[in-house]
Amino acid sequence: MKIFADTANLDELRELKSLGIIDGATTNPTLLSKEIKRLYPDFRAHNKEELMEKGKEVLKEVCEIVDGPVSAEVIATDADGMVEEGKKLAKVHKHIVIKIPFGAEGLKATKRLSAEGIRVNMTLVFSPSQGLLSAKAGARYVSPFIGRMDDISNSGMEVVRILTEVFSIYDFETELLVASVRHPMHVVEASLLGADIVTVPPDVIKKMLKHPLTDIGLKRFLNDWESLLK
Ligand code: G3P
User: Fold this and answer.
1) Which three-class secondary structure state does DSSP give residue 201?
2) Which domain holds residue 178?
3) What are the CB-based long-range contacts (under 8 Å, 24+) for 147-153?
4) Which ligand 1 atom sits nearest the alpha carbon of residue 31?
5) Helices 48-65 and 29-39 sit at what angle, rounded to 10 degrees?
6) What is the CATH number of the domain that holds 90?
């Protein structure tokens, strides 16, 4: 199973990369705007084009850190606009994958971008039927948002279970990218179901590193060893 970092924060990405466990990254307009505000607190774009340029600048830096696919999301909501933006974003770096929000327009854009060899990550997927249509349209990745489903008392993991099975029955090349991960058990459960990728926020990765018995055990080993010192 591949692990992606669900962040656009350059410092967090550098730190996670140094752990040697990151295969890619996912961003979205929320994560990217947060990083632009962190890096350039006084920046305010005069128009949408200028804003897009700033986004591309940060995405390029993300791609230079991450040695793998980096999802960058379109802002347009119509298929023509999504395709146009997708093509511009794809030129930023060879790692870029275009994130398209699910819907009729998103499916049309996915078909067109995929036909041109541009990889698409279909985002905002909340049901098996949405995931199935995304794969049919040629999406390289399909991202069910499991935490947001759990938030409204739907089982996010059940959608993951069904989609892993459907993709394998029909031999789709589409990879299941589990998103909206909130805690370490989401990662473990997704891996048990055979998800291809889980995109994990840095705070959840930090929690995955910790176990009180590891800390206690290390302290005891060091104390026992040092007990031989005068
Ligand atoms: O990639 C974005 C997705 O993971 C969203 O997560 O926590 O905002 O539902 P969240």
Assistant:
1) coil
2) 2-229
3) 147/180, 147/181, 147/182, 147/186, 148/180, 149/180, 150/182
4) 2
5) 90
6) 3.20.20.70
CA distances from 110 to 56, 74, 103, 167 (A): 20, 12, 10, 17
Residue nearest to atom 3 of ligand 1 (CA): 180
**Euclidean distance between the first and final Cα of the chain, in Å?**
48
Is 175 in contact with 196 (CB distance < 8 Å)?
A: yes
The alpha carbon of 5 and the centre of ligand 1 are apart by a number of angstroms equal to: 11
pLDDT for position 171: 86
Ligand 1 surroundings by CB, under 6 angstroms: 6, 26, 28, 145, 147-148, 179-180, 199
The residue whose CB lies within 8 Å of the most ligand 1 atoms, and thus the one to mutate among 27, 148, 200, is: 148
**pTM metric for this prediction:** 0.96
Domain count, the chain: 1
> Region 151-172: what's the mean pLDDT?
96
